[in-house]
Amino acid sequence: MTVILQKTxxxxxxxxxxxxxxxAFSHQAQAQQQxxxxxxxxxxxxxxxxxxxxxxxxxxxxxxxxxxxxHGISHPQHPRQQLFSNSTMWKYGLTDYLSIQxxxxxxxxxxxxxxxxxxxxxxxxxxxxxxxxxxPNPKRYIPGLNLFAGVVFPTGDYNQLGHGQDGVxxxxxxxxxxLLSQSTYQLPGHHALxxxxxxxxxxxxxxxxxxxxxxxxxxxxxxxxxxPGMSGQTGFSLEYGVNRQWVLAIDVARDWANGSRVWxxxxxxxxxxxxxxxSGDWQVAPALEYNWNARWGVIAGASVYYAGHNTSVKIAxxxxxxxxx
Length: 325
What we know:
Blueprint: H1 2-33, E1 53-68, E2 74-75, E3 82-93, E4 98-111, E5 115-116, E6 121-122, E7 125-134, E8 144-153, E9 174-187, E10 191-204, E11 208-211, E12 223-227, E13 231-241, E14 246-257, E15 261-265, E16 271-275, E17 279-291, E18 296-309, E19 311-324
Antiparallel strand pairs: 1-2, 1-3, 1-19, 3-4, 4-5, 4-6, 4-7, 7-8, 8-9, 9-10, 10-13, 11-12, 12-15, 13-14, 14-17, 15-16, 17-18, 18-19
């Protein structure tokens, strides 16, 4: 009888031990099964594995509905500068911790009484390295930390423009860097919540040579230089997994920029040296994600600029497709 009891206890211990282990693995699998496309505004972290690649084209229509003055008061705006653009992110994992990414931007703009772009225009070309220097540890509430560092190459038209709508570049090499924190939490009901917090900073490395009509607002006959002001963005995003396929996302971000400086001589020989007014805005970007699997997903939503100064009041609907391979 003692032998039977001992065997019974042994099998009970083994049964409950295996059950607990399976539940733990099941909970871990649930956490790993959440699929994401990524929110509309937040930067994405470095790839998890060397050789992983991703392509994510964004299609955006920007519709201004007014402008904020220097005191943050909104006013109607007519005519309105409208823009349709495609921004595609290309990313590749060089190692398990280091990735390289680039963005190609093609846009087409138009404005009443000011004409249209002379065809689709290729903008400036940013290239960044992303280093994940801290791996996330959800059990200890440690987020993954990523450092971005890169340069925006002046590939967009900005100088001696035949038409003002063709000005899509800054003409300067711009250094940019960012710090990104990313963490995921399990909420009751096995719903995943991903949080990203980031901060971008950009600074021009050189002045651009300006001739005639430029993206800096100069006119025919001007000869001089231009330099974009420092700028940046701070924000956070939340992505809530309704289930494995469907995700609710929202970004809240603040953009800021110092005014660009322009100096040189006008057509009449008059010397000018002016610095534009600083600007800033707040935007919120709700979106809905759907993921067919861990490698394919789509997101649709809109950025709404709801406060600021010396900037447009606008709504920018967006849709993007995320592919990982």
